Structures are given as C-alpha cells and as structure tokens.
Fold each of these.
Amino acid sequence: MNELLHLKSAGLKSTLPRLKVLSLFESGNDRHLSAEDVYKKLLASGDDVGLATVYRVLNQFEQAGILVKHHFEGDKSVFELNQGDHHDHIVCLQCGRVEEFFDATIEQRQKKAASERGFELHDHSLYIYANCIKPKCKYKN
Amino acid sequence: MNELLHLKSAGLKSTLPRLKVLSLFESGNDRHLSAEDVYKKLLASGDDVGLATVYRVLNQFEQAGILVKHHFEGDKSVFELNQGDHHDHIVCLQCGRVEEFFDATIEQRQKKAASERGFELHDHSLYIYANCIKPKCKYKN
DNA sequence: TTGCAAATGAGAATGATTAGCATTAGCAGT
DNA sequence: ACTGCTAATGCTAATCATTCTCATTTGCAA
C-alpha cells in the first residue's frame, strides 16, 4: 500500500486513474515516460483513462513530489519516479537511451558559480546530449 | 559589412528582414531574445517583417552558426549571438535576469561522465535557476 | 445510504512554432 | 539598366503538446 500512502499524504484521493499511473511508474519497466507514453501504455493494458487526466495526474504527482519532470531536447516532457536522489541525464542522440549520473563536483561548482554572481541557487537542469559508443547504441553502431 | 559576410558565407541572400534581425542582435541591447521579442522590436522600430519570417530567419541563423538557441525553463526559446565562446546560463526565477558563466571544471567533468558511461559527448545544456540576492533583483528584494 | 466536493473524460481552446502557397525581391547574366 | 528565375517573404491555416471547460461520475465522510 505504498501508493496509497503517497496519495494520502499528498492530499489526493485514491482514484483509479491515479493508482494506475502510479503503479505504471513503480513497475519500473521504463523510468522516463511522457504523458503520451503513459496514456498509450494504459490504453494498451486495457485501462481507460483520458489523456487530459493523465496530464493532470502527472502534474499533481510532480507537485506532490512523487514524480520529477524533465525537458529533454525540444518538445515533450518526461516524468520519472522521484526516489530522493537527485541526478542529471545523458541522452543518446541516436537511440534515445537515457543514462542517469550524479557528479558532486559539478553540483558543487554550480552552487559556487551562482553565489559568486549574486544568485542563490534554487534548481538546475543539466542534460548531456551524446552518442552511444558501439555496440550499445540501437541505431548507430 | 560584417553582417554581409556572415550571410554570404552561410549561403543566405542578403535580404532586408535578415539584415534587420542580425543588426538587432548585433546592437547588443539585449543578448537573449525570443522570436516574439524580435518580432515586436522590429515592429516597434517601424520595420515590417512577418512573424513567420522571424522564425525562419532565426532558425537559419542558428543552422549557420550565427545564433545559438536556448530553451530556458518551459515554453518559448531564446536566441543569442554566437560569439564563439561557449557558456552556460543562470536565470533568476523572479526577475528573469540572465547571467552567463563558464566553468572549465564542469565542462571537464561532463565529458568524463559521458565517456565513463559509454557515450561520446556531443553537446549539453545547463541552466541554473536561482534567485537574485538583494538588491539586484527587480522584483524580489 | 446519502450528499457533495473532488476527479474524470471528451472535446474545445491555447500558445508556440511550422507548413503551404501566392506574391515579391535579390542577384546573375545579358 | 533590363530579364528572368529562384529564393525569400508574408499571410493564413495547420500542428503539436498541453491546458481548460463543463457536464457527468466517483471517492469518501457523516
């Protein structure tokens, strides 16, 4: 009943769509999903939720700290389960593979860069766009 | 005639709209401008260019390496003159002030993070979202 | 079980950006 | 300078992701 706890503590009613979305992320099959992805996966598994609801739920979960939202290059944003550990992302430009990483030095220097210039760091987004080195990349190798 | 050289070498005809857009950026009054910003500024100065043209020109300039495009938090993207020097950005969440910075160590560690995980770094985007420390911030101080 | 506010679903609306197309304007060659 | 042709422009309509509206449904507390 981990899901229920999450929802309760966020002041969210435990509804079918919310549980479905949550368990999709907790199943762990795909860490990074867009609203469209979630919508399609739910449809595919016979669960009938509206796209608008998916968007709403995703955003509520983000507010509640259950999910984290990312804007990879360009258009649609993706969500991933918030497991407390902050990390940044490397995205393969060819196959889309996403790898997570954390570098204490980078974090450190960012804070420094901000404070040196009269800012108090609140947040940051760091995406590395790269190419898989063979033979891992699904497309280019 | 710096502008002309730019355009020529990019294989772009030297047209009125392109010259207008280019000189807007080269005037240096605002480093970071969205398509909408450019459009409005041109209108304001009596130059009559269509919004679609602005978008087209901006993208052509990006391809040509004359401008660089950035996606700050959320929606619209902004462009800035490409002066050869790569840098990242700090954006104030309150007043929108944008400060540029470069940190060799961060660059370094990114390359390392990528290669350690089987990627060849191609590109990256790093945005620090922060709050101005008083009294510089136009809104919160 | 009842009642009601909160949540959902379907479709319309929005906002940024792009595509389609008829008209205009650079510019190379007379 | 004049012709002509292709690239460029300026509308407007179209896209695409995301949000809003609102009538209907559902979770849940009394």
Note: The mean pLDDT of chain B is 91.
Amino acid sequence: MKNNKATIHDISRSLGIDSSTVSRALNGSDRVKDKTKELINKKAEELGYRKNIMARNLRMNRTFTIGVIVPRIDRHFFAKLIAGIEETAFNLNYEVIIAQSLDSLEREKKLLANMLNNRVDGLLISTTMETISYDHFDAYKDENSPIIFVDRPNKIGYNSNVIINDQETSLNATQHLIDNGYKNIVHFAGPQEVDLYKLRLAGYKAALEKNGIEFNEDYVIESRLMQEDGEKMAKQILELPNVDAVFAANDHAAIGAMKRLKEQGVKIPEDIAFMGFSDEPISEYIEPGLSTVKQPATLMGKEATSLLIGQIENKSGDIVHTKILDAELIVRNSTKKITA
Amino acid sequence: MKNNKATIHDISRSLGIDSSTVSRALNGSDRVKDKTKELINKKAEELGYRKNIMARNLRMNRTFTIGVIVPRIDRHFFAKLIAGIEETAFNLNYEVIIAQSLDSLEREKKLLANMLNNRVDGLLISTTMETISYDHFDAYKDENSPIIFVDRPNKIGYNSNVIINDQETSLNATQHLIDNGYKNIVHFAGPQEVDLYKLRLAGYKAALEKNGIEFNEDYVIESRLMQEDGEKMAKQILELPNVDAVFAANDHAAIGAMKRLKEQGVKIPEDIAFMGFSDEPISEYIEPGLSTVKQPATLMGKEATSLLIGQIENKSGDIVHTKILDAELIVRNSTKKITA
DNA sequence: ATAATTCATACAATCGATTGTATTGCATGT
DNA sequence: ACATGCAATACAATCGATTGTATGAATTAT
C-alpha cells in the first residue's frame, strides 16, 4: 500500500524544476515551454501523481461542486430530476452533493447550513411543503453563490427558478375534462401555502370560468395529496351531489381515490373521470390508465444545472432568471369522452 | 454583499488570542478554559464565522464525503438505495457525492477516477452490467479508502459487499411456483457475466433439482432484461411446448412478456404464471399483480453506509465483510395456485 | 519556601496547490 | 557592442485550519 504521496513538490524536486512551473505545466499554461511540459507530464505519470483537489479548492476558493436538496430522492420526479442534474454536471466537470429534506423544514435548514459549510459553488433546491418562509436562505445572500429553485419557485430577490407553468397546464388539464363532457369537477388541491398548488387551483378555476361553469367552493378539497388522502377524499366526493370528474393536483391522490371508489363499485371514467398531475410510473399501469400531466423532470434537471453553472462561471452576480418548461398532457382512459 | 471572510485569524486578532486556541475552542477541545471558549464562541457568532471546510480537509487529509456510483439514479431500486445512503450519511455527518455510470463501463472508469481525485473517504458502488473485469479498481488498492460493492458483489481482495442472497431467494421464488402447481418453468436469465444473474439461474436450477424436475436448457432464455426483451421473449415461449410459468430475473422482462401475451389472449396466471424479481412499483398495479421478490433497497443503502463509515473511521485497514440481507417474497395474482 | 506538576495559551510548522512578481539568459535591433 | 525586449523559469506569499511543542503562570506537594 504505497501512500500515493506524489505532490507537485515531488515532481519539482526530482526534476529540479520549481513547483510553480510544475503547477503551470500540469494546468497547460503557456508560460511553460513545451519540452518542459513533456518532461513534467512524464514524471507526473511515472510518480502516479494525482492533483490534490483539497489544496486547489482552498487556494482557489472554489469546489467545483453543486449542492442539491430535494424532499425525497426516491420519489420518481426527484429521481429523474437528479438524474438530469448529474448528467449535465458530469459533462461540465462538476461534482454533485445530494441531500434530502424528507419534507422537514428543520432538516432543510440544517442541510442548507451544511451546503454553505461545504462551500458548494451553487445550489439547486426543491423546497419542502412546509417551507413557507425563507429566512433560512438569508445566509445565502452573503455568499456570492447562486441558488436556483426547481419545481417550487420562489422570489427571494437573488435566485432563479426552473419550473413548469402550473397554472396554464392545470387550465389545460381541466379544459380537457370539460371538452370530454365533464362539468361537475372536483379539485383535489395541495397545501395552499405552497405556490405551486395555489397555481394549480387557479388554473382549475380559470378553466371553469372560461367555460362559464360556476365555481363551487365545496368542490375544492385540500390535503397533502398522499395516496391515503385520496382514499379519504373518495368518501367525501361520494357525499357531494353530481360529481362527474376529479382533477387532482397530483397522481397519488387520484390513484388513492380511484382505488377506493373502484372497491365501492364506482365506474371510472363512466361514473367519475380522473385527471392527475405528475405522471407517476404507475399511472400508466393502473386500470384505467390515469390521464395526467407529464413534467419534464430530467430536462428540468439539465436546464437548471446548466443555468446554475452558467451563473457560477459568469459570476455576473445577480442574474435572476425564471425558466418555464412545457408540461405535456397525457391522455389515458380515466378521462374517456362521455358518449351520451 | 459582505464577503463572509471571518476566519479563525479574525477571531484571534480581535480577541488577542492565538488562532490555535481559537481552533481548539471551536472544536470543543478541553485544552481551552471554559471562559475563553465562551468568549471565542461569542465572537465567532458575532463575526458570522463559518469554518472553512476546504482548509480543514487539506490539513486533515479527509473530506468526510463518501462517493456513490450507480448505473442510473432514476431506476427505482437505486433511488431507494441512495435514499438510504443519504439518510445514514447525514446522521453520521458525512456528505454524499453521487454519480451515475449509465451502465457504461467507460463512464464508470471515469467516475472512479473522479472519485479518487475528489478524495472521497470511501466509495459505494453498484457496477454496470458491462463490468466483468476489475482492473480499473486497482488504483483504489493504493489508497487506504474502503470500497463496498452493493447489490452486485465482487471479490477483488480489499472490498466488502452488501447483497441479498440471490441464489437462495431465487430458489424460493421458483419453489413457490412449483408449490402452486407449475412444472414447466421458463427462466428469463440476465447476462451471465454478471454474478448476480448467474446466482439467480443457479437458484432456479436448484429448485428444479430439489423437486425432481428435469432441467431443460431450452427453457433458459438470456437477455439484458429490458421490457422490450420481455416482449420478444413472449414470442419465444409460445413456441416452446408446455410452458406453464416463467421465473424472470427481473420485473421489467416479466412485465414486457405479460403485456405481449395478454395482447395475444394468453391468460395469466391460468395459462402461464409469472414470477418476477425486484418489486418495481408498477408490479403491484399491473393486471394481474406480479408476484416478485422485494429487495430491501433502502435498508441495503443504510447498512452499506454504516459499514463503510465504520471502516473509514476504524481504519482497521482490511476489514473484508459480506453482509447478506433478506429479500422478501411478494405473492400476488400472477402466480395464483392452480386449482385443477 | 522551593521544587514539581498542572493548566492555559502561544508559537510555528504544515497540508499542496496557485499566482503575482522577480530574475535570468538569450535573441533582436541599431 | 550595447540597450531593449521577451521567453522561460524561480521565488515567495497565500488560502485557513490543525496540531506537536514550548512557554509562562498558577497550583500543589514536600
């Protein structure tokens, strides 16, 4: 077990060339003669030299690392997102540090501090549902490192966002239900402190209005949109009069409700149609297939990462930018047209 | 934008206390008087001091970071695995650097070099299907940093493994088919260069032998086990005589085949039963539900991480250890008992 | 009262690379 | 032949923390 000790100083010593020259040679500076470079590179190879990133980081005050904080890594959307992030970061020679907040604000705060401590060059974050104030991001203001909110946008003055157009997409999704003959549409809303869920509700409302359908407050049921919430809400909509469709702010809630309703003999979509949001992998496979909105998760990760690294390297300070990507309406059997 | 410059030297200067004492105080050393510690901590707080991890890393020659390389982050098993890794690492105050090989050996090599360059304190890796020689791990021998193979075990002399017992589990899965009355069982095998798929085939064979069923070479079909492979194999098994069940080395292949067969009017499980492997999320939702083997992915991540960090911190050098976790047989309708 | 011990802190080297400035030697122009 | 300029390399400071050793003061033992 040789201790892999070779440093530029070892090369320097064994060649009688100053370590500054060695450093420049290894970095391809044109201040070093080609012949000398060759010598140095050969010796480096020979000694199994490997640059000490920690020393470079300290001196350059950079880490070539970006931090990523998401609620849960194993949620499909975030796994896709991270896959996109990693791919782009790899291509641009950055490392990716990952952490999950587990949807806990307290943990998010800790992770944020961690990321600061670890001197990431930039941060990508998708905040928890609990995150409704942003004081804990203040520390970032004092750094010069950029921060981008993904999926759950914010404006805290010095950040960028990469999102989809939740309102417009929700309008389209609701419109699709209306186009297919559904009129009494319940909305499974998410926590209204979260911007994105507010927008989805707004899109739903806008669609109703656009089609001259009166908005009924009782038709909006708010929850955290877990599958279990969906199961509970199934009961509630059976007690409402005339409901013929549901637009859920995510797939999980829709799937939970569908499951419970099917058990009770309700036919989908004949009795009640369902439109989800997110395109979970299972949504394609349940019976009937769940119509939904597909978020371009991997693309969002890629876009966010190149935006972030662009900001890191331009250091143009306060580029604030909001990138809106298109979401795609996926039509399956849960919203089949009513053939009266 | 204050440049957040405070270092131990700033504290040292403004307090007239040597920086070494400041350092010790901030690290809670008992070589500093409590009263002095208080002073220092107060001043640190006041100056918004934040330890420079890069300097510490350089000096201590450690990063408190573990590297993770998996084929794809957005594959369910790996997302779960990583979630477990991150959680444990967080609790033990380690950071996690993530990279995906995209099942390319070439990329795996690059990532491995990257991880070395970044001086991770230890490495968790699940190798690609292409990885059948291990020369590129040699560089790790020269480091003193431990490496653990997860899910796809290896013995390269200086590593540990965290795996499930693929052979035994496969035996049980096959036995379950046999117990339910199936006798002519096809095996969808994975690439036989990969140990794990070799073991699954071995388990299948062992089950046959144990039950006095003759092994038929034609009943083993090898592929890379993508869903499309499953669809192709559906045709092949229809051309074989008497097939009444399939044991697939992963769920994807099983699902592909089931889909194609259903289209052709084959009844599952009445005509052909299916047993998968991995418990993909969709396996619960397809019709019929796919019986399968559930790998404890999150637990594997946790176990691997605490094992790894244990090795890092004990530095007991060459602890080689193989941890075998239990997989669980999940019985659904695709293997329903034959009621003659 | 003095030597021995302990306690609290200061001193100074170190980790390995980067980078602004200084120096040397050589070629070029006149 | 001599000043000028440039090419190539050397010198030395620096990034911010850690840590072994030295020092001085305070406490204890004898």
Note: Residues 17-21, 24, 31-33, 36, 55, 57-61 of chain A lie near DNA strand D (CB under 10 Å from a C1').
